[in-house]
Amino acid sequence: EHGVAHGNLGLENIFVTSDNILKIGDFEHAVFVGSDNQLQPLSKLPPPPLKTYIAPEIEAFKPGERLDLQKADVWSVGIIFILLLTKKPLFDAARLDDNGFQMFSRVGLRSYLKVMYLEQSAICKLSDELLEFAEGLLNLNSSLRFTMREALDTKWIKNEKGSARLLKRADSFAVASFHADAVALLT
Known about the structure:
Pfam families: Pkinase. Keywords: ATP-binding, Kinase, Nucleotide-binding, Serine/threonine-protein kinase, Transferase. GO terms for molecular function: ATP binding; protein serine/threonine kinase activity. Residues 1-157 form the Protein kinase domain. By secondary structure, this protein is mainly α. The protein has a single domain (4-29, 43-186), classed as Transferase(Phosphotransferase) domain 1 (Transferase(Phosphotransferase), domain 1, Orthogonal Bundle), CATH 1.10.510. 44% of the residues lie in helices and 7% in strands. A two-stranded antiparallel sheet has the order 1-4. A two-stranded antiparallel ribbon has the order 2-3. The protein has a two-stranded antiparallel ribbon with strand order 5-6. The protein is globular. It starts with a strand and ends with a helix. Residues 168-179 have low confidence and may be disordered.
């Protein structure tokens, strides 16, 4: 919306004020992409230090490629979302040499979560709306991945009451404000 791609979103760069307002910091890797989010032809990318959150297209970047850096930020938000939900990273890095990422790429998010987090009964209780939201954030094909606006328009984000009820049932690990935090992160 503001024509900027952060380029290094991760929990380490999200701060909470004393009024419980989320703030994003560390704009060292930020790029102005314009209000129409022009694909960026890049000669090089500075390697962001937060590897867990980097989108697969950034990991596979070749000089001269045009990338949608805001969609790469959406991927990072998806990784953060799953990390907050499960308390574990999905995988170390979105690279083909990462076994977890290989499995995620083959079976998709729903099956991957069931296999990786079987011991957490909360994962088995996640709603289809929540999973559709997460799948839209973590689509391997960046052209099909949600934009931030599309993410904000999903059923799960718009259904605050239902989402809060689902999360309270799912587990007690401080998720009362999880929905509001997810919305704040996207806006």
